[in-house]
Amino acid sequence: MTFQKLIIGASIAIGVSVATVPAQAGTLTGATIGGTAASDYLVYDSNATNTFIVANTSANVQKVISGNAASPTGNVELAASSEQTGFNFTNNTTLTGTISGKTLTLSSLTSDDWFGAGNTTTAYGLNNLANTWFNQVLTSNNISSNLLAVFGYTKQTLFDSFLTNGGFQRFSDPNISYVNQDDTSGLISIGLAGHYNAAPLLGLPSNLFTSPLQASELVKYTYEGKTDYLYSFKATLSGLVEKSDGISHSGNYEVTIKGVDPAAVAEPSVMLGLLGVAGVFATQRKFKRASI
Fold first, then answer.
1. 102-107 and 226-230 as β-strands: parallel, antiparallel, unpaired?
2. Please, are residues 171 and 268 in contact by the beta-carbon 8 Å criterion?
3. String of b and e for 64-87 (b: at least 16 CB within 10 Å)?
4. If you ran DSSP here, which 8-state letter would residue 217 be given?
5. FRET pair for 190, CA 20 to 30 Å: which of 44, 107, 112, 177?
6. pTM for this prediction
């Protein structure tokens, strides 16, 4: 009887301890490229120092988005032609995959995203994403009207110059370097490869600041019925630069989505533990019947 009790206790302990271990959510899987401009993307692999273009294959797409904040590795650039003449700002390119059993779609931005459907005007001071983001860039980097005036700018003239020079298109082509989910909290982390110092991209001289001006490109996401935009004004050094220009991908900007908590998944050993418990009880009943 003492031996049987020990077996029962051990079996239950094994079953309970394994059952409470959550499943490993991991990274985005089954990644596919789509959107209204499904061919407008580039894949960058990496080595210890550089990122460099590789073939647009499904295997390469999946490979380069498997990094993390400590090691961003390569990336997939959506709407890669955004800086070229004749870029169609009404089309988008998407990256879609599954993470912890849920579908996540990441997309480049269009003019409708920035300025509203129909975008009859792109003026400074309107209530749209373009103005909201642009003013947040200035505020987050401590760029005041007085500081801009030193270089002959106002907020409006800087906005107008940025608009005219294709700045909004330039920040519409996110470079996705990783998509991971925390297996406890469910938080989804997305790495955006960008410039560690984005001052020149805003049309501002780098020597205007005592520290780098930081602003990521934007990414649009759809997850669990919700669509919104993600961007960041804080970068870490990626340890990489794009091989051909020596500047791009030097900063890693991490943005997050509150994901669905990954469900606890019973391991095979749980079932073995439960079967062991059931077997002991069945044997115990046989012993009792035999002793009557």
1. unpaired
2. no
3. bbbbbeeebbbbbbbbbbbeeeeb
4. P
5. 112
6. 0.82
Distance CA 177, CA 249 (A): 9
Instruction: Give, in order, the Cα–Cα distances in Å from 14 to each of 10, 60, 179, 184, 279.
Output: 6, 41, 33, 21, 15
User: Which pLDDT score, from 0 to 100, does residue 4 have?
Assistant: 54
Q: Give the three-state DSSP class for 94.
A: strand
Q: Name residue 241's beta-bridge partners.
A: 50
Q: How confident is the model at residue 182 (pLDDT cuts 50, 70, 90)?
A: very high
pLDDT of residue 275 exceeding 60, the answer is no
Pairing assessment for the beta strands 241-242 and 50-54 based on DSSP bridges: parallel
In the numeric block, the tokens 């990336």 are attached to 75
- Tokens representing residue 246 in the block: 């020596």
Residue 269 has pLDDT above 50, yes or no: no
Q: Left (φ > 0), alpha (ψ -120 to 50) or beta: where does 197 sit?
A: beta
- Cβ neighbours around 245 below 10 Å, total: 8
What span, in angstroms and rounded, lies between the C-alpha atoms of 292 and 288?
A: 7
**Over the range 255-277, which residues count as b (16 or more CB within 10 Å of their CB) and which as e?**
bebebbbbeeeeeeebeebbebb
